[in-house]
Amino acid sequence: MKILAVTGIRSEYDILFPVLNELENNKNFELKVVVTGAHLSYTHGLTINKIIEDGFNIADRIDYLLMTNRKTQRSKGVGILIEGLTQTVEREDPNMLIFVGDREESIATCIVGNYMNVLVAHIGGGDPVYGNADDPIRLSCSKLAHIHFATAKEYANNLKKIGEEKFRILNSGNPALNNIIKTKKISAKKLSNFLNIDIYNSQYIVVLQHPISSEVEDTNTQIQSTMEAVKEFSDINKIKVIGIYPNSDPGSYEIIDKINEYKSDDIKFYKNLPREIFVNVMRNTLALVGNSSMGILEAPLYKLPVINVGNRQKGRLNAGNVVFVEHNKIDIIKALNQACFDRKYRNNIQKLQNPYGDGSAHKKIVKFLEKIDLNNPKWYIKKKLI
Amino acid sequence: MKILAVTGIRSEYDILFPVLNELENNKNFELKVVVTGAHLSYTHGLTINKIIEDGFNIADRIDYLLMTNRKTQRSKGVGILIEGLTQTVEREDPNMLIFVGDREESIATCIVGNYMNVLVAHIGGGDPVYGNADDPIRLSCSKLAHIHFATAKEYANNLKKIGEEKFRILNSGNPALNNIIKTKKISAKKLSNFLNIDIYNSQYIVVLQHPISSEVEDTNTQIQSTMEAVKEFSDINKIKVIGIYPNSDPGSYEIIDKINEYKSDDIKFYKNLPREIFVNVMRNTLALVGNSSMGILEAPLYKLPVINVGNRQKGRLNAGNVVFVEHNKIDIIKALNQACFDRKYRNNIQKLQNPYGDGSAHKKIVKFLEKIDLNNPKWYIKKKLI
Amino acid sequence: MKILAVTGIRSEYDILFPVLNELENNKNFELKVVVTGAHLSYTHGLTINKIIEDGFNIADRIDYLLMTNRKTQRSKGVGILIEGLTQTVEREDPNMLIFVGDREESIATCIVGNYMNVLVAHIGGGDPVYGNADDPIRLSCSKLAHIHFATAKEYANNLKKIGEEKFRILNSGNPALNNIIKTKKISAKKLSNFLNIDIYNSQYIVVLQHPISSEVEDTNTQIQSTMEAVKEFSDINKIKVIGIYPNSDPGSYEIIDKINEYKSDDIKFYKNLPREIFVNVMRNTLALVGNSSMGILEAPLYKLPVINVGNRQKGRLNAGNVVFVEHNKIDIIKALNQACFDRKYRNNIQKLQNPYGDGSAHKKIVKFLEKIDLNNPKWYIKKKLI
Amino acid sequence: MKILAVTGIRSEYDILFPVLNELENNKNFELKVVVTGAHLSYTHGLTINKIIEDGFNIADRIDYLLMTNRKTQRSKGVGILIEGLTQTVEREDPNMLIFVGDREESIATCIVGNYMNVLVAHIGGGDPVYGNADDPIRLSCSKLAHIHFATAKEYANNLKKIGEEKFRILNSGNPALNNIIKTKKISAKKLSNFLNIDIYNSQYIVVLQHPISSEVEDTNTQIQSTMEAVKEFSDINKIKVIGIYPNSDPGSYEIIDKINEYKSDDIKFYKNLPREIFVNVMRNTLALVGNSSMGILEAPLYKLPVINVGNRQKGRLNAGNVVFVEHNKIDIIKALNQACFDRKYRNNIQKLQNPYGDGSAHKKIVKFLEKIDLNNPKWYIKKKLI
């Protein structure tokens, strides 16, 4: 079975990686990767280099990420990607396309698979999060994809609710968890050196905040209240701050500009961190603040308290480690105090049940793929669409 | 309220037309039309000229239809259209996009609306037909569109089943019915003259068969069995045949080539017929054979027996006038005999209930649109996606 | 040296073929072909199949030919092609791009080569023909290409006149002539059978007329006067007519429609003829009428009288076999009479000197390419542009 | 006469502006502007806002600038732009397209004009500068454009040399000079405040260095030697440094990163400066260092010594104010010492003759355009191409 994986951004590649690795090491599969989007952007850390290092065979590089902050960026970008991907899929003639999530790559892959009559497997469907332009895209992809790997039982059930046939759905859990489990421990001293911030003698929190499309006009004030809160909390408690720059969506430039105003010896931001560094940073942080999906989907594995600011991620399955607060400095500081210093609260989080699986998702996914009979027409035509 | 309608092919424009006409004549709306796809193709009869005649303001002409018969045609075409439509939507800055159905225009409009944060209204969602590349696209559009005008009660219910909120859904019925109702009668003599075939002294059947994407490799043998059956039926019974060439999808060239082999004084095919001619042709035909959606969606209004050949249209609501047969000459002839000459069968069809409304869909749709409060955020963000 | 050839239409591929064949059989070169444009169009005879039969390695298929007859067709087409070709060139990473002529493929290849810093070799520059949208494109390509293979001495000199450095230019002659020389003779009987027209007992002329962009509004009347003339000449003299359908440019549909009105047992038109058939048809025809470049560039090898109708091909080097006439029935018939029946005129043409070489162009070109030192920066940067 | 101007970057818009302003104020012309490229990029200062402030009617915004530093950026970018611009030109149906220079916008405008049969006017042709991917593009545009406004007599002659007809060419001079002449004086104190650097009590030099495509691999070491030289020169002589970030070409990110390492209280860089600030900065600087075309084309008006580092701008007409040096710290410092402190050298520059006109180019251009008879076919078809 020849599989073409499509990936466009670091965060989504991290989820895909354990699956790709498992496919690469299985002689029943031939794997190639289409690298697009932010992976090809210098500003976003040229993460294609990570994919090359990981040793995957690259089928094509497809530029589509436009250098603008207007809403046209993602819309036109999907069009450019579909044009290029069609060319790749015709040449490579794969048996299956695979992708993760809800971004430009996702819908482009589904559309190309649909018209080119190639099976499409989707990791991460059935998630009812709302408020961002990504969210309806995810559901739209579920109606086009032929095979669904859900990251939680509830999400697998959601896929059935919207009419997907049972035999197409597997509750695999979140493949990204395997990255975390497999990552070797790095000492706080080494981390401090690498990051050029002293987190050996000092505790720290992590900040990761993206723009949200339905509120893009408020981006500036939203990130400002987070940064104000974080700075005050850091000053008062002598706690360091480690941040990651946002994704490439419209509004990201405003966030970067605002973040840069707050950078200091105690508040450091990074374009991208190598996975092993990042995982170790997450293992030792007091809390995560912002609106990254990681707070919902991966933080439970770390038993990590999360303050989710604003409406992004609303609707998602909360393992119990997430508190939702408004874009308001005082509320954020209050939540940070609870997350970092309230012993009882922190103890409860240590006991949570992770609904996103046990880190073996990649193995379950590949086993499922191995059993697919490519000659069985049931996979290609959905006779039941509702 | 400024509305931008997107249309790409004659068959879908016919459904859209009564709605556009109603909007154009209502001073609460400003309407422009984006003309794309087969409308701009000489081969498909340059139906943009009909839109110009109808008097609508054209926002942009966007070419995307590629001159190939490969599967890449529709896939790459969607990408090209999204690029162009993004440019149009930014410039025109409409309050709403409106479209019909399940084709390239449909998914392109939904994607652009989603990322550009513009409301999208979809006519024709909730229809569970399967087997063609269009069909999952229709469902995918439903998860992205903000407002749904279903053509039947069952379809409106289907939209709720896949998670769409009730307040977004209206069972309007099929707007195209109004075209039929409003069309003046033309005498058989005049029709004969116009069509250059004698249907004044002779009865006739109508043929309309498109390729189906999931069986595109069999296109040639499929159209051959239809044409063989039709020819034999015509020869034996001295019945004329009026046909329309297929749409622009991959496989259409093979169909045209095969059709051309069978053309004769008794079997005539046309690129496109003016609406008033076509409606009168349908009013007087003994039966319709092929796989056009019209057999399901419009033929009930004519109380017309339909022989649907093959898998296209399977899954759709059958008003009782449709018989499904395989791609087999003998079966088709048998069904034609029943449809044309079995008095009891024909009488039963005269009594059917049309599930697709009473021809007032356009009025219901515009009334619904008038009541929408564009400042209410509920329309823009689907808080319930499943 | 890895070479990527770019081809988009049968007429231009015929010129390229001997060069590709020579490269394929030379172990110093690795060759791949990018197939685009009309080669991928069913309407134009799917000539990609010929390229596959010829045994070349296809790097990518890139659709760009839009199904419209508007001027947007070629303009937007170039853009779509550049997008796709950039992707191919980055992946294949060739040392050189090679192409023929003056069409969409030509300018797209030059632009991609320029920005991707890959050498570009152009076959057919320096030709001062004017009146068609292709013509300034040809010159524009000459300013971007790094290596020039001219088809005549005068054209090589023209390249120097517009500022190209001498070391970049070779007067190779026209590679297409080799196809003609190498083609085996086929008897008139066999030709008659293949073509389904009796050219064994009857003489014939050949018609090949394309639209011209600067006069596209007059396409209809232009082809009509040619067809009227040809029909009358055929009727009076009992001479058969063999025609080829036009290329894909705007206006081509009008030409096809008009041609179809004149088709009869004595006047046959073909979408495409296999090369060996076509060459034998040309060997035995009394004359060629229309406006194909073949009348100028290849007919001298056949010592064939040509009637060039209208302004297309004006400015080109006339070997002495071409008469230019207006779009006027009487003038065309007069010229046909001279070309077919004036013995003295026909004898003079037998004595002409062919300025387009001796059929060894492909060998000269490959020898030139073999000597290029890819590490010498002189090839990449034109220090003298004027 | 309806004119559509196409602009993509601040530097080129500055040249275009006086012409647009003159057209806007002339009732014989209807003007619209297509805004593309870096104008739409937040990173490049969203200079579309300047165009809006200047009061021009915007026909369309066309994104094409890809967020990558690979060579694909400009190549694919041209394709995307051509697609969008074709749509705009069909809708607007202008009589003429106008553009400046040698960038993606330039070649895209020429191609669209050629195939859409719309006149194209080019400002800045005939310049034999070499070494950058832009340079052959400029010449390529000259062969496609119908009307040429050269910025110097020698350049006008060059256009004739490459075969352009005399009646199409006007030596207008450089329109940008008018911006400089018209700009009001701003005091050093106010400039210091605005720029947040003290250039009231201290002298300063200006740095403006772009990547060069034929040496893009050396970008990092090239900018480093400039920055090292500038820093040392600044330290030793207590002279401030004002810099502008580079354009959007591949290599620009490396330049920005390197520049950022050298920023200090004495060395300040700006994304973009308002025109009136920039002109006043240029009026008072001791010298300009880098490789901007401004050093060649505009600095003569300021009688300003220029150190051009490296091969960019080579081949251009030097008014006598430019010294070319290698990418070598010591050579740059030596040249800076001469430029800033060698009184005799500086006196000679005061006496130079400006070959780029007297600042009235915009008036000459508009007068030329007014006299064009749009019905005369000579403008549309170049009967003499060589």
Automatic annotation (TrEMBL), chains A, B, C, D:
<dbReference type="InterPro" id="IPR020004">
    <property type="entry name" value="UDP-GlcNAc_Epase"/>
</dbReference>
<dbReference type="GO" id="GO:0004553">
    <property type="term" value="F:hydrolase activity, hydrolyzing O-glycosyl compounds"/>
</dbReference>
<dbReference type="GO" id="GO:0006047">
    <property type="term" value="P:UDP-N-acetylglucosamine metabolic process"/>
</dbReference>
<keyword id="KW-0326">Glycosidase</keyword>
<dbReference type="InterPro" id="IPR029767">
    <property type="entry name" value="WecB-like"/>
</dbReference>
<dbReference type="Pfam" id="PF02350">
    <property type="entry name" value="Epimerase_2"/>
</dbReference>
<keyword id="KW-0378">Hydrolase</keyword>
<feature type="domain" description="UDP-N-acetylglucosamine 2-epimerase">
    <location>
        <begin position="22"/>
        <end position="370"/>
    </location>
</feature>
<dbReference type="InterPro" id="IPR003331">
    <property type="entry name" value="UDP_GlcNAc_Epimerase_2_dom"/>
</dbReference>
<protein>
    <submittedName>
        <fullName>UDP-N-acetylglucosamine 2-epimerase (Hydrolyzing)</fullName>
        <ecNumber>3.2.1.183</ecNumber>
    </submittedName>
</protein>
